Amino acid sequence: KMTQQMRDLQLAQARKPPGPSSPNAAKRLYRNLSGKFRVNYTSFDEGSLVGRGEKEKLRKSYLFQSNAALFEAVELQDLDRVQELLKHYSPEELDLNTPNSEGLLPLDIAIMTNNAPIARALLQAGAKESPHFMSLESRSLHLSTLVREAEQRVNELMAQVVNEAPNADCSEKEKQLKAWEWRFRLYKRMKAGFEHARVPDAPSSVHLSVASSSSLQVTFWEPLSVNSAVVTKYKVEWSCSPTFSPLLGEAVIDKLKDLHFTIQGLVSGTVYHVRVSAYNMKGWGPPQASTPPFAIPSNWREYDGRAPRRRGQAEALDHLLGQVKTVHQHCICHEPCKNQPQSRKHSVSKSLKHLFHPGSKFLKTLKRGLYLTAIFYKDDNILVTHEDQIPVVEIDDTYSCLLMQDFLWFTKVSCMWDEILWLRQCVTVSQSSCSCILQTRFKMLLAISQMQGLLGIQDLGQVFFEPIKDKQGNILIVTLKEVKTNQTFESVRWVPICKLQTSRKSVSSPEEPTALDTLLISVQDKLAYHQRSSHALSPGLYLGYLKLCSAVDQIRVLVPERLPNILCHVKIRSNPNISREEWEWLQKMASTEEPVPTEPEADTSQNPLFQELQVAIKELMTLVNIPLQEAKDFRLYSQEVLDFGDQVSFLLLLPPSDDVCTAPGQNNPYTPRSGFLTLPLQIFELGEER
User: Fold this and answer.
1) Where would one find the signal peptide in this protein (predicted)?
2) DSSP assigned state of 89
3) I need a labelling partner for 274 at 20 to 30 A (CA). Which of 265, 513, 603, 653 fits?
């Protein structure tokens, strides 16, 4: 029999009385929660409450109801109700790991009734087993006590109902009797579930891979049979010995949303063996050894001791920029205007007056020239002037043919929005040479300053990869920026994009739209491009395809529309690291000039990377519409692995050397399917850096 001391301990730790004691009561409670209690308590009219104490009391009342409803939903094995409660309440609000007066947690009830779907939902929400059950004996004793006391209570109520005359008290006793009969059956089912359960089998599979020069990644899968009890945690063990004696370390994983674990702090070049075992309420099952049976922490750079390509580059560039600024501190552009020639002084003063004069404002129409427009958007709204126009300023009204070099220079300036004043001063110094290129670029800087001043913001965003041109001789350079906060702008306001598109009156014909009309028609496509170009890849190792095409004044690179800041690619695996052994194999394959692996070979069938590359190459060839037989002439770039931070790395697949870059007029027999575009190489490099 449960001792009085244990019962007192349980009651002291329980923060709530037992929930509804019958299925009907549970349904009524859940209906209440589905209505008025489901909304957050802070949404109620707090003005009617007197003081913080009453607010807190009301809050606790709602949370009490949600906790009781969770217990009853688990007892009734109602998965939909459990998921609904877990969705609308946090684990803390539900008191997910606080035992009730019977010393049970929701997870205890789910696993002892062998309800795997509810148990998994609770485990993913962070549920734990009751700390009372430190041994099999204590759990068995506790269940036996609950069954016996429930049976005793049923017998007592049955005797009272039989012996008493029909009245109001008798009707209440009959309700209590039905509730206790239901609870008696629940406890018997839990006790039978515990008695019939066995320890789980070993995990069905354990995969071991090299995560870095000091870590290994372990991925495992659930046992094929859990022996009538839900697995609630796993144990990962590692050792330098195949017998696991001595054991170097172990880790218990009780967060089961993702079944993987990274072993950190290992010694590079050392052999490690790993195994994993599963646990349920009956204890730990047998361990499952990993495949492969051991692994050696390493990284491909250890093959020749190569340092990371980008190590120190950002610091070096910052230092170089600082040196350039220091040199320009005492140049003529920072001296008073009286030291400059009179004609130049008048020209610069006129430009500055035009910039800050109250008459400086956004343009409504375009007149054959070069212009800058800035698109700021938030959700489905776009920033417009008070005349419901997209902000546009003039760069040069005599410039009707934008050179690609000038446009690419502008895109580089977009990386230094905060330095426009300094850049403008520096370009002013060289203006005495009367270079048309410098004149144009100085006007670009003036237009940027004007746009920044009119909007009251420095960062104008990312430059769209190509300007918009029309047959009237107008050219629009477009910048895009998403606003995620309630930022304040000057001289502008927000309007829905659809409203702007329907309300604007076009001044051009559909056959020959102006650059502004073209921008308005395609604005959503440009916003989609901007959003996609800021997406990041999920961690992993990727196979990229490098394909270039040249024109008279630029080289363009093939990229996917869904992720235009990355080369065409497919994912090889989730582990981004290439181990030293894998890199040695790739070097050996490259040195023998073997074709890329597209068909299985007997001597490499046990090489996981070889098999992963086979699958990835076939998928990539299908993606870019190249027949698989053509892949025999392709090559893997073997000089380095392209690392993008610690979580993403690339292997490059190259066409034959004569086909890497398609020349002007050269036909490409294998045109990629829809979903691709070509970007100027410099634009792609800037997007990659962002």
Assistant:
1) none
2) S
3) 603
Question: Over the stretch 603-644, which tens digit does the pLDDT of each residue have?
Answer: 545 688 999 999 999 999 999 888 888 888 898 999 999 988
The encoded tokens of residue 621 equal 């060839």
| Through-space distance between the first and last CA atoms of the chain, rounded to whole angstroms | 68
Whether 403 and 521 map to the same domain: the answer is: yes
> Looking at this protein, which amino acid is placed at residue 554?
Q
| CA gap 378, 381 in Å, rounded | 5
Q: Do residue 546 and residue 682 come from a single domain?
A: yes
For 55, other C-beta atoms within 10 Å of its C-beta total 15
CATH number for 670: 3.90.79
499 and 576: one domain?
A: no
Question: Phi/psi of residue 635, each to 5°?
Answer: -130, 150
Provide CB contacts within 8 A for 188, sequence distance 6+.
147
Give the highest mean pLDDT range of 13-27, 265-279, 453-467.
265-279
CB 122 within 8 Å of CB 115: no
How far apart are the C-alpha atoms of 179 and 23, rounded to whole Å? 8
Pull the structure tokens for residue 389: 């126009």
Alpha carbon distances (Å) from 590 to 103, 596, 617, 649: 65, 9, 16, 19
Domain count within the chain: 4
**In the block, residue with structure tokens 């560039």:** 317
Q: Which has more pLDDT, 67 or 77?
A: 77
Maximum Cα interatomic distance, the chain, rounded to a whole number of Å? 118
pLDDT tens, residue by residue, 103-135: 899 999 999 998 989 999 999 898 988 887 878
Domain boundary among 243, 275, 298: 298
